[in-house]
Design goal:
globular, 7-stranded mixed beta barrel, 3 helices, 7 strands, alpha/beta
Length: 131
């Protein structure tokens, strides 16, 4: 299992688990508060070069149903679902993140991260580390 961390501009770090592509990305944080629609948020051109923070605890339930390329740089989630339950899914979320080069982190305190973003810390770096 690969480790990852989020690093804020002031040096504050949040450890977690790598999810999706591996590497290092930085960008502005875009918050997705919707309980559904994680796929469009990652594919929306308005979120190109952004790191999408999901405030809903579980994402990935429906898998990936479309073939649109994912343009977000990164993803922050608390508890992604390992296997989708939708008959319409053509791929799992983590698989598509890897294929499209979206570096993600999960198993982090998204509430604490959201509080920092609301306080003005809008740029972060996600770094994955191989064990």
């Amino acid at each position: 299992m690969s480790q990852a961390k989020i690093i804020f501009e002031d040096g504050t770090e949040f450890p977690g688990r790598a999810y999706g592509a591996r590497g290092e990305v930085n960008g502005r944080v875009v918050v997705c508060t919707s309980a559904t629609g994680y796929e469009p948020a990652l594919a929306d051109d308005a979120n190109a070069d952004a790191i999408v923070l999901y405030t809903t605890p579980h994402i990935g339930n429906t898998g990936m149903t479309g073939a649109e390329p994912l343009v977000a740089r990164g993803l922050i989630a608390r508890d992604p679902v390992p296997h989708s339950s939708s008959a319409f899914a053509v791929a799992e979320l983590e698989q598509r993140l890897s294929e499209d080069g979206v570096v993600g982190i999960c198993e982090v305190d998204t509430r604490a991260i959201m509080r920092r973003v609301r306080a003005g810390a809008a740029t972060v770096t996600i770094v994955t580390e191989e064990n």
